[in-house]
Amino acid sequence: MTEWVRDIATASRGRSIRALIENAGQQIETGTDADTVRDNCISQLLELQPPTKADNAGEMLDLLNRMERERNRKTDLLGLPTGLKTLDAITCGLLPSEVILIGAWTSVGKSALMLQAAVANARAGTPVLIFSLEMTRDQLRGA
Protein backbone atom coordinates (compact mmCIF):
# COMPACT_ATOMS: atom_id res chain seq x y z
CA MET A 1 0.00 0.00 0.00
CA THR A 2 2.74 2.49 0.90
CA GLU A 3 4.53 1.79 -2.40
CA TRP A 4 1.36 2.76 -4.29
CA VAL A 5 1.09 6.01 -2.30
CA ARG A 6 4.77 6.73 -2.93
CA ASP A 7 4.26 6.19 -6.69
CA ILE A 8 1.33 8.62 -6.73
CA ALA A 9 3.33 11.24 -4.82
CA THR A 10 6.26 10.83 -7.23
CA ALA A 11 4.00 11.20 -10.27
CA SER A 12 2.40 14.30 -8.72
CA ARG A 13 5.81 15.88 -8.12
CA GLY A 14 6.75 15.06 -11.72
CA ARG A 15 3.66 16.87 -13.03
CA SER A 16 4.41 19.84 -10.78
CA ILE A 17 8.01 20.03 -12.05
CA ARG A 18 6.81 19.86 -15.64
CA ALA A 19 4.35 22.74 -15.01
CA LEU A 20 7.10 24.72 -13.27
CA ILE A 21 9.42 24.32 -16.27
CA GLU A 22 6.68 25.29 -18.75
CA ASN A 23 5.87 28.35 -16.65
CA ALA A 24 9.56 29.31 -16.50
CA GLY A 25 9.80 29.03 -20.28
CA GLN A 26 6.79 31.31 -20.71
CA GLN A 27 8.29 33.86 -18.30
CA ILE A 28 11.57 33.89 -20.22
CA GLU A 29 9.71 34.35 -23.54
CA THR A 30 7.76 37.31 -22.12
CA GLY A 31 10.97 39.03 -21.04
CA THR A 32 11.15 38.26 -17.32
CA ASP A 33 14.67 38.55 -15.93
CA ALA A 34 16.47 35.17 -16.12
CA ASP A 35 17.85 35.47 -12.57
CA THR A 36 14.35 36.06 -11.21
CA VAL A 37 13.01 33.05 -13.10
CA ARG A 38 15.90 30.93 -11.82
CA ASP A 39 15.35 32.01 -8.20
CA ASN A 40 11.62 31.29 -8.45
CA CYS A 41 12.32 27.85 -9.95
CA ILE A 42 14.78 26.99 -7.19
CA SER A 43 12.38 27.98 -4.40
CA GLN A 44 9.49 26.09 -6.02
CA LEU A 45 11.66 22.99 -6.57
CA LEU A 46 12.69 23.03 -2.92
CA GLU A 47 9.01 23.07 -1.93
CA LEU A 48 8.43 19.99 -4.10
CA GLN A 49 11.22 18.04 -2.41
CA PRO A 50 9.75 14.97 -0.68
CA PRO A 51 9.95 15.05 3.10
CA THR A 52 12.60 12.89 4.71
CA LYS A 53 12.38 11.28 8.10
CA ALA A 54 15.77 12.63 9.10
CA ASP A 55 14.67 16.26 9.02
CA ASN A 56 11.20 15.84 10.49
CA ALA A 57 11.31 16.85 14.16
CA GLY A 58 7.68 15.80 14.72
CA GLU A 59 8.39 12.23 13.69
CA MET A 60 11.44 12.14 15.94
CA LEU A 61 9.34 13.38 18.86
CA ASP A 62 6.73 10.70 18.12
CA LEU A 63 9.45 8.06 18.10
CA LEU A 64 10.84 9.26 21.43
CA ASN A 65 7.35 9.25 22.96
CA ARG A 66 6.76 5.72 21.67
CA MET A 67 10.07 4.58 23.12
CA GLU A 68 9.08 6.06 26.49
CA ARG A 69 5.72 4.26 26.38
CA GLU A 70 7.49 1.01 25.54
CA ARG A 71 9.87 1.47 28.46
CA ASN A 72 6.97 2.03 30.87
CA ARG A 73 4.69 -0.66 29.40
CA LYS A 74 3.31 -3.06 32.02
CA THR A 75 1.88 -5.74 29.69
CA ASP A 76 3.08 -7.86 26.78
CA LEU A 77 0.58 -6.13 24.48
CA LEU A 78 1.97 -3.58 22.07
CA GLY A 79 -1.49 -2.57 20.84
CA LEU A 80 -5.14 -2.85 21.80
CA PRO A 81 -6.42 -6.12 23.24
CA THR A 82 -8.74 -8.41 21.29
CA GLY A 83 -10.27 -9.86 24.44
CA LEU A 84 -8.90 -13.30 23.53
CA LYS A 85 -5.69 -14.10 25.45
CA THR A 86 -4.38 -16.61 22.91
CA LEU A 87 -4.88 -14.22 19.99
CA ASP A 88 -3.33 -11.38 21.99
CA ALA A 89 -0.29 -13.57 22.77
CA ILE A 90 0.16 -14.34 19.06
CA THR A 91 -0.39 -10.81 17.74
CA CYS A 92 0.72 -8.67 20.73
CA GLY A 93 -2.56 -6.79 20.25
CA LEU A 94 -4.10 -4.72 17.49
CA LEU A 95 -1.56 -2.08 16.49
CA PRO A 96 -2.92 1.34 15.52
CA SER A 97 -0.63 1.57 12.49
CA GLU A 98 -1.97 -1.64 10.96
CA VAL A 99 -5.07 -2.39 8.95
CA ILE A 100 -6.53 -5.67 10.07
CA LEU A 101 -8.74 -7.59 7.67
CA ILE A 102 -10.67 -10.60 8.87
CA GLY A 103 -12.21 -12.78 6.23
CA ALA A 104 -14.15 -16.00 6.65
CA TRP A 105 -17.28 -17.80 5.57
CA THR A 106 -20.68 -16.58 6.72
CA SER A 107 -21.60 -17.19 10.38
CA VAL A 108 -18.17 -18.20 11.66
CA GLY A 109 -17.73 -15.34 14.14
CA LYS A 110 -16.19 -12.32 12.42
CA SER A 111 -18.68 -9.91 13.98
CA ALA A 112 -18.45 -11.67 17.33
CA LEU A 113 -14.65 -11.27 17.25
CA MET A 114 -15.01 -7.57 16.45
CA LEU A 115 -17.51 -7.11 19.28
CA GLN A 116 -15.28 -9.06 21.69
CA ALA A 117 -12.39 -6.71 20.91
CA ALA A 118 -14.67 -3.68 21.25
CA VAL A 119 -15.93 -4.83 24.66
CA ALA A 120 -12.39 -5.58 25.89
CA ASN A 121 -11.22 -2.12 24.89
CA ALA A 122 -14.30 -0.37 26.28
CA ARG A 123 -13.75 -2.13 29.62
CA ALA A 124 -10.14 -0.93 29.56
CA GLY A 125 -11.34 2.66 29.09
CA THR A 126 -10.53 3.00 25.39
CA PRO A 127 -13.25 4.83 23.44
CA VAL A 128 -14.95 2.49 20.96
CA LEU A 129 -17.19 3.20 17.98
CA ILE A 130 -18.88 0.43 16.06
CA PHE A 131 -20.74 0.80 12.79
CA SER A 132 -21.85 -1.73 10.29
CA LEU A 133 -23.23 -1.44 6.80
CA GLU A 134 -24.63 -4.96 6.95
CA MET A 135 -26.04 -5.45 10.45
CA THR A 136 -28.57 -3.52 12.51
CA ARG A 137 -27.99 -2.46 16.10
CA ASP A 138 -30.13 -5.34 17.36
CA GLN A 139 -28.23 -7.84 15.22
CA LEU A 140 -24.93 -6.57 16.60
CA ARG A 141 -26.21 -6.83 20.16
CA GLY A 142 -27.14 -10.45 19.57
CA ALA A 143 -23.93 -11.42 17.76
Describe what is shown at a glance.
The protein is mostly helical. Helix content is 60%, strand content 0%. The chain has six helices and no strands.
What does this structure look like?
The chain is 60% helix and 0% strand. It has 143 residues and is an all-alpha fold. The two termini are 32 Å apart.
Amount of helix: 55-70%
Largest sheet: none
Number of strands: 0
Low-confidence stretches: none
Topology:
Elements: H1 2-29, H2 34-48, H3 57-72, H4 85-91, H5 110-123, H6 137-142
Helix pairs in contact: 1-2
Entry keywords:
single chain; 143 residues; mainly alpha; 6 helices; 60% helix; 0% strand; elongated
